[in-house]
DNA sequence: ACATCTTTGTGACAATTTTCACGACATAAG
DNA sequence: CTTATGTCGTGAAAATTGTCACAAAGATGT
């Protein structure tokens, strides 16, 4: 399952982005695409795109570009788009509710299968077709789920994290400001919206000529 | 205003994070802190922290560490925590509503001053104390505002972006999947939640031993 | 068939970022 | 005063990431 040929992390982070735009091209009926065109669409230098693709071998044809259908098929396999990864969401508050209402499933190999909250008014209801269980049932319900979205209050973050890991979760998308502690082998991506906003303002003031920056 | 001594971008992105944790320490009444302690709290290598701080001169004392109050004061000035930057939010849907309900102002030099939407049912109301105007009033109301949070549907993103820039906005926090095109001098940070989730899953499967990763 | 045009894949290089490791100084204790 | 311990700031090295620029391969047009 896990490749031994190590793709650079920076490349790996761009793959889902490439996938989405290639999929768009396919839907639009385009048959081929050059690294230059793709570059304008995703705002990544064309040389970087060619380099990224080249880690997977020769996907294109010189003088022609890339065949959209072939590329799409390739990325579908590489990103495991066929098997849906079940995801749990913990904390159905402002943010959590927004995510449940959003259809992450479109164009995506992930699906939020269940949500948990401590509020008895929320437990037993559904949002966006996702059932909400009581947090006490976490260990019991989380059997197949390996990935979790964490949108609980700051004070609960570490505690819930430990329960998630005990239940077999190996990946967490953490929206709380807490920098949670996890054992080796558990992957955490922090998305810290306050930091993002402050960081944007800092760059606006101190780097006035630059333009684009991945979050 | 803008420094000529260039702080590395990677460092600049960590500054708001440092600021928040130093502030926490101050609230807890701690008088001093070492790079090692801070490292455990923010999950950044201690050498990296020392290096980051050193771009601003010698903030610490050898054999002692950093004085929390001094550090806090220093970061407050560096991150312009005194002057609040006004921000506008465009698109009061699922995500936009969550952001309006969240108090970004806490511990933060930014404040969402106004919001815009096309839906007449939302126009004229308030969420979290923030007034919602009609999108037609954008140009008229946006006089002081230089930063915007974009949470409109994909199809509207580029169009609204252009109107924002015409109105003087120089920084955009973009939550739509569109990679918007902007002229030089306008800063865009993309936060692409579908990509983040797919990327997490990819890393879980292909880099099973790594642990932590900034979004 | 041939000349011309396109675009890939990549060696070489440049830039950025992280990490190592140690001298220098601070503090505390005896 | 001396020693033991702790911690910074930083030169140097390593690791990672991005970019340039071009030969090679194939596409296109006449
Ligand atoms: N809303 C935003 O725009 C925003 C922005 C930045 C960061 N955040 C962070 O995201 C997190 C969630 O924010 P929010 O605005 O949605 O908060 P919220 O208070 O609206 O939602 C938190 C939810 O978690 C539930 N909860 C509380 N304790 C729980 C527990 N032990 N187990 C399960 N559920 C529990 C609550 O019932 C509530 O529904 C917070 O950590 C916040 O700091 C939110
Ligand atoms: N909700 C999520 O969890 C989520 C996740 C990933 C990405 N996104 C992206 O974030 C964006 C917003 O998502 P959402 O779920 O909040 O969508 P939404 O449909 O709930 O909200 C969009 C809002 O924008 C308003 N709007 C439409 N046209 C407008 C215009 N021309 N000017 C001003 N306002 C206008 C609508 O009235 C609506 O209130 C979308 O681009 C979506 O792809 C959302």
Automatic annotation (TrEMBL), chains A, B:
Q: Which InterPro entries match?
A: CoA-bd, NAD(P)-bd_dom_sf, Rex_bacilli-type, Rex_DNA-bd_C_dom, Tscrpt_rep_Rex, WH-like_DNA-bd_sf, WH_DNA-bd_sf
Does this entry carry the keyword tRNA processing? Answer: no
A biological-process GO annotation: negative regulation of DNA-templated transcription
Location(s) in or outside the cell:
Cytoplasm
Under the heading Pfam families, the entry gives: CoA_binding, Put_DNA-bind_N
Q: How does it assemble?
A: Homodimer.
Role summary: Modulates transcription in response to changes in cellular NADH/NAD(+) redox state.
What is stated as this protein's family in its record?
Belongs to the transcriptional regulatory Rex family.
| Protein name (database record) | Redox-sensing transcriptional repressor Rex
- Can you name the source organism? Aquibacillus koreensis
């Amino acid at each position: 399952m896990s490749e031994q040929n190590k793709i650079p992390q920076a490349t790996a982070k761009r793959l889902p982005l490439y996938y989405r735009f290639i999929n768009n091209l396919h839907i639009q009926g385009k048959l081929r695409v050059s690294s230059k065109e793709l570059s304008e669409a995703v705002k990544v230098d064309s040389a970087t795109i060619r380099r990224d693709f080249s880690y997977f071998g020769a996907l294109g044809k010189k003088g022609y570009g890339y065949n959209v259908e072939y590329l799409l098929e390739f990325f579908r396999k590489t990103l495991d788009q066929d098997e849906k990864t079940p995801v749990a969401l913990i904390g159905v508050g402002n943010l959590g509710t927004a995510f449940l209402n959003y259809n992450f499933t479109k164009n995506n190999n992930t699906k939020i299968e269940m949500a948990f909250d401590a509020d008895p008014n929320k437990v037993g209801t559904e949002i966006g077709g996702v059932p909400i269980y009581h947090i006490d049932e976490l260990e019991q319900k989380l059997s197949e789920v390996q990935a979790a979205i964490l949108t609980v209050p700051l004070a609960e973050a570490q505690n819930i994290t430990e329960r998630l890991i005990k239940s077999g979760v190996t990946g967490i998308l953490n929206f709380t400001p807490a920098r949670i502690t996890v054992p080796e082998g558990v992957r955490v991506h922090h998305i810290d919206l306050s930091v993002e906003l402050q960081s944007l303002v800092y760059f606006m003031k101190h780097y006035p000529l630059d333009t684009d920056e991945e979050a």
